[in-house]
Amino acid sequence: MEEKTTEQQETTVQETGENSSRPGGNQPREISMRTLVMLIAALGVIVVLLISNFGKGNKEEACVIVQQSPFGQSQQQIWIDLDGDLQAKGIAEFGLSYPDGPEGYDKKIYRVYSKQIYSLYYINDDNGKQGMMIVKGKFCGKDVFESGFYNDGVEYAFINKVQDGDTTVTMKGNDSGVQVASWVEGEFSYAIGVWNSPVTEAEMLDLISQTE
Fold first, then answer.
1. pLDDT average, residue stretch 155-163
2. Among candidate residues 162, 143, 158, the one with its CA nearest the CA of residue 209
């Protein structure tokens, strides 16, 4: 390969200098700046995508609702037991309409998972047994018992799909009656559990009509 002499190199520099002073001589620099801007913009998009996806997946099954910070960090979510509806509504950031509990289960425990779940437990104050559980939560359209938060671990004698207006309700139970019902309506998923005091299908539908 022929090497350029010093004179040839100087000639090349001079020609380059002359071209830069001609009309349109700065065009290569403009193209380079445009390319640089496009590269920076593309890099910014990639960074935003990485940030938005950082930390997701480890709770994918539970469908975490709490918004992340610009650095991909989520606010800490915790279970909190409360004494009243007003407190529960404030922490959940949504309300729950609920029916009266079974006879003998007068104590209520309001349990909330930050901005995502509002649950209510009816307890017998004498023996501590649970008479009824009601859950309302944001699970991205999933059934409560498929959300990753709840698993009752009970083997049921039957599982029926019941149509309640436009809503499909899943009812599970044994020979004594319906023990649990779950359904999805709008952005919320619901469940009612009465494991210790089963009810009829009609009674469960009545409980559902009072739950919102």
1. 96
2. 162
Q: Compute and round to an integer the Cα radius of gyration of the chain.
A: 32
Give burial (CB, 10 Å; 0-12/13-18/19+) of 198. Answer: middle
Sort residue 178 into left (φ over 0), alpha (ψ -120 to 50) or beta.
beta
DSSP category for residue 199: B
Backbone phi, then psi, for 62, in 5-degree steps? -85, -15
CATH topology of domain 79-209: Protein Transport Mog1p; Chain A (3.40.1000)
CB 209 within 8 A of CB 134: no
Amino acid at 96: L
State the Cα–Cα distance between residues 92 and 73, nearest whole angstrom. 20
What's the whole-model pTM score? 0.66
